[in-house]
């Protein structure tokens, strides 16, 4: 573990979203997303960075899944249904991770 007054850059990938400033549970974070694909896989990392008392704190969410049901199914309707299910499940997990980040506190009395 290394203490730093700045948060390290998130390694870029071909599937990125520009960093966004947001406030969760009263704490200001910078959310970054980076990802990559290959050999039927998709990888995505979401980080929530904040500086508290001159130190960087990072919460990281890493997702690894299949890159589209079309690699495993041939029926277009089944592919669309499987991809929609995966997207909905991932959205629910991301909402949980975001809610968890919103509970971040270094103050035990919060």
- The radius of gyration is 17 Å
Share of residues in helices: 10-25%
Say how many strands there are. 4
Q: With helices defined by DSSP (H or I, 4 residues minimum), what is the helix count? A: 1
Low confidence ranges: none
Label the overall shape.
Answer: elongated
Biggest beta sheet attributes: 4 strands, antiparallel
Integer count of domains = 1
Beta-strand percentage range: 35-45%
User: Termini, distance in Å?
Assistant: 25 Å
Report the order of strands and helices: EEEEH
By secondary-structure content and strand pairing, the structural class works out as: alpha+beta
Spatial ordering of strands, largest sheet: 1-2-3-4
Round the mean pLDDT to the nearest integer and report it. Answer: 84
Key phrases:
110 residues; alpha+beta; 4 strands; elongated
């Amino acid at each position: 573990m290394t203490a730093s007054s700045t948060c390290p850059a998130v390694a870029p990938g071909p599937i990125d979203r520009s960093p966004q400033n947001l406030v969760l549970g009263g704490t200001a974070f910078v959310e970054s997303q980076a990802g990559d694909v290959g050999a039927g896989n998709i990888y995505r990392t979401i980080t929530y960075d904040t500086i508290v008392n001159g130190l960087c704190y990072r919460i990281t969410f890493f997702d690894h899944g299949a890159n589209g049901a079309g690699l495993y199914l041939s029926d277009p309707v089944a592919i669309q249904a499987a991809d929609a299910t995966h997207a909905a499940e991932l959205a629910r997990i991301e909402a949980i991770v975001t809610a968890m980040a919103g509970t971040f506190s270094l103050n035990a009395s919060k």
